[in-house]
Amino acid sequence: PNMRSKAISLCFVHSTITVCYYGLTTSANFTADNIFLNVIYQGLSEVPSSIIAWLMAAKLGRRPSLMALLVLTGVTVCLAPVTKPWQPIVSTVIAITGRLAVTVTYCISDR
C-alpha cells in the first residue's frame, strides 16, 4: 500500500508538471508582444534549468525542491496575465520565471 500510494502520487505530480509545461509552451503569447522575443526568452529559460535542478536537488532534496518550485510556478502563472495590462515588462519577467521554475521542476521529477 505504501509503494502504491507513492507511485500514484508521483504519477499525478508528473502529469501535472507535464500539462503545465505544455500549457506554458503553447500559450506563451502572454509574455511579450513580439513572437521572436518569446522564442528567445523560452530558449534562454531552458539553458540553466538542468544546473539549477541539480543544485537544488543536491542541497535541498527532491521533495522540498519540488514543493517550492510547484508553488513558485503556480504563483507566477497566476500573476503573469494579471500584471500584463499595467506592467508588460514585469509580466514578461514573471512569466519567464514561471517557465524556468516548471522546467527545473520537470528536470527534478525526471531524475
Description:
The protein has 111 residues and is an all-alpha fold. The chain starts with a helix and ends with a helix. α1 packs antiparallel against α5, α2 (35-46) runs parallel beside α5 (88-110) and α3 crosses α5. The model has no long low-confidence stretch (mean pLDDT 86). The protein is built from five helices and no strands. Helices cover 84% and strands 0% of the residues.
Provide a quick synopsis of the model.
With 111 residues, the chain is an all-alpha fold.
- Distance separating the two termini: 23 Å
What Rg, in angstroms, do the CA atoms define?
15 Å
Give the uncertain stretches in residue-range form.
Answer: none
**What is the tally of beta strands?**
0
Order of helices and strands: HHHHH
Percent range for helical residues?
A: over 70%
Biggest beta sheet summary: none
Number of helices: 5
Alpha-beta classification: mainly alpha
Strand fraction equals under 5%
Globally, the shape reads elongated
Mean pLDDT: 86
